[in-house]
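Now for today's protein:

——
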Amino acid sequence: MVVLNDRRAQFTEQYFDGAPNIVVEILSPPRTVDRREKFTEYEAAGVPEYWIIDPEREYAEFWQLDDTGVYRVAYAGSEGVYHSRELPGFWLRVEWIWRQQPLLDILREWGILPQGV
């Protein structure tokens, strides 16, 4: 779960009162809980981005709420680049999830570290 500063006031001493900016689910049996039940709950709660990661099948789905409050798939696949709407400027190569790329290589690709460092 990702909660950005714009929703920080929703934290109470005991719980978070509201929808986080992003929810990430790593699928495990039974798959229907994350794909159906949680999907519907997060959509109804207004979670702007819902990421479903399936390590067994090496497949990821990235859902974003549209203007009507309905999830639309923003990206689905095993390879390629996903750009987050909730984290402006953040992107990731989906294959990094399956092929543990060295962190320094990722930081270089994001432009956080200069090439050659």
Remarks:
- The CA atoms of residues 96 and 102 lie 9 Å apart.
